[in-house]
Amino acid sequence: MKSILSALNYLPCREMDHADWIKVGMALKSEGYDLSVWDEWSSRDPDRYHPGECARRWKSFQGSSDPVTGASIVKMAQDRGWTPFSGADGVMGWNDVLEYDGAGSDPDPQEPERKGTEELILYLQTLFEPNDYVGYVTNDAWQTDDGKWVPAKGVYYRTAEELITSLRRYPDDLGATVGDWKPEAGAWIRFNALDGEGVRNDNVIRFQFALVESDAMPIDEQISMYRKLELPIAALVHSGNKSVHAIVRVDAANQEEYRKRVNFLYDFLASHGVKVDTQNRNPSRLSRMPGVTRNGQAQKLLGVNIGRTSWQDWMDYADSEADDLPPMRTLDSYDASELALPEELIKGILRQGHKMLISGSSKAGKSYLLIELCIAIAEGLTWLGFPCRQGKVLYVNLEIDPASCIHRFLKIYEALGIQPAHMDDILIWNLRGRAMPMDQLVPRLVRRVQGQGLRAIVIDPIYKVITGDENSASDMATFCNQFDKICAETACSVIYCHHHSKGAQGAKRAMDRASGSGVFARDPDAQLDMIELELSDDIRNWEAKKGATAWRLESSLREFENIVPVNFWFEYPIHRIDDGRILTTLPTQGSPEAGRIRNKFSKTMGTAEDEFRKAYCAVNFDGSGATVADMAAYLGLAQRTVRDRAKKMSGEFTVDKGMVHQEPVRTDSDPDS
């Protein structure tokens, strides 16, 4: 039995040469210790110690086929006169490594012999208050048909103080205090204090300890794992067979909290590869009593007060292990290699590994714009005038059938006049009819793209995979975190689109037009918004191609200055930049300026009633009505004027609670006409 930390503390750092200093660091890292252990030991030689040097060396220890282990530290200490087990009471320390010969079931013969009564006294003093009732079973056990020994109810009405007094009175005869036990069966003890009335869970007065037992790995590996996971162990007992019993502090206030904490403890251990016997969950459970023998093997107390001092102290460690968060670092610890910014995927807009949202109304041709972007990245061309870095891109198609998706790509290639040179750099994942919530899709996506060398992943459209309430900030924050996972695990940029909210958008800022929670606009590193322009008759008649619509692209960027707004036409199936700057002075639809333009030409465009009807059709996107405010903004009128006009058109329009509604057209077939 050897204690690595005890051996390390014996080594005089001042007398170590550089090679042995490096060997100590490599051994500690190999055994799973933290950098801080080596750093603290090294600081004992202030003449040679330099802050940060251990950290730099630690990074270079990557392991080898012939690793330096803790045995090197032990050997160096022994060569200087160190011997193991010099601690108080001769009890095994937390950092001692338990070694076995043969099949791995017998303790190292160097371990000093200790009386069974002394072991049980130390166990009782550690786990119980003097007046606590202790439950235990010695000769009250029976054997099943398959040969297994099973404990019965046993004793539960003696206090810890009473037992300790008797053990000290008869130091050489453990049976004189607890009774003789069956040699083949050993003996058991309950690790939580009882009320002296029984041995059920309801008889437990303090839910302080839980039992961790695992016989699925060798005993030395069990102890090593408990040490590395820093369990707050009050007592560690060899079972006399193929496991150790770790009595772990859980410090629960009641039975319900005990249940939750034990579940967390077992789940945590399972996640770290320790298969725990889950039948040991109940607080009145029996464990193995130290100091007795079982089939000739000692049920031995290996140590007390091991690892973290309390459940809360251990939870601080467990949280840091479970959350997988990076360590905190000082500003001066970052070297030049860590300060390089990711390269720009879309010049002046988006970096590699960042997120971009494109928002716009349903008439904007967002899917076509995303496909144009895929082609621009694959071919290394410009997109809406912005140069793209050439690379491989994945288009996740959630909306249209595979054949239609492929035809759309080919049609856009043709309309752009591009000779395909890198079509093999465009991957398409057709998931129409197979869409699933984003949190389920992400691990499948990440698994499939590993090793593909992608620069970007385009997801179209996100409403097919959205989870939670679109208007809930917390739900949408959780949803948007899935994009972060893709970026972090693939190093790809993630690009997606979302629709505008209801009503006129012209009077809003670009980042406030997307539907739902503001998280949508504030989460991505780059948001590009498309809003339609109000065309005057002369431009509509003389400049626009048949069916073409005019748009303006505005931005909200985290890494760059916002772009100068880009005006362009959507001429199915592609978007074309307005090189002639015809659209520069046009207002956006729904803005007060657009309303004034319409009013200015109202005589040539029709009556006020006609304009009211046109405004209603423009603002009422989903058929649920239009707000008075949106109607006023669109027409360039005061809200009171809108209400008055609707009242004059009574029978066709009504106003209720700030909403304008159009009455259905009646015919002779209507029953109420």
Describe this structure in words.
The chain is α+β, with helices and mostly antiparallel strands. The protein folds into four domains: 2-84; 116-322, RepB DNA-primase, N-terminal domain (Alpha-Beta Plaits, 2-Layer Sandwich), CATH 3.30.70; 344-501 and 510-528, P-loop containing nucleotide triphosphate hydrolases (Rossmann fold, 3-Layer(aba) Sandwich); 592-662, Winged helix-like DNA-binding domain superfamily/Winged helix DNA-binding domain (Arc Repressor Mutant, subunit A, Orthogonal Bundle). The protein is built from 22 helices and 32 strands. α1 crosses α5, α6 packs antiparallel against α7 and α12 (366-379) crosses α13 (402-416). The protein starts with a strand and ends in an 11-residue tail after the last strand.
Keywords, please?
single chain, 673 residues, alpha+beta, Alpha-Beta Plaits, Rossmann fold, 4 domains, 33% helix, disordered C terminus
Helix content: 25-40%
Low-confidence stretches: 85-111, 601-605, 667-673
Distance between the termini: 100 Å
Q: Which CATH architecture of the largest domain?
A: 2-Layer Sandwich
Mean pLDDT over all positions: 84
CATH class of the largest domain: Alpha Beta
| Domains, number | 4
Shape type: elongated
CATH superfamily of the largest domain: RepB DNA-primase, N-terminal domain
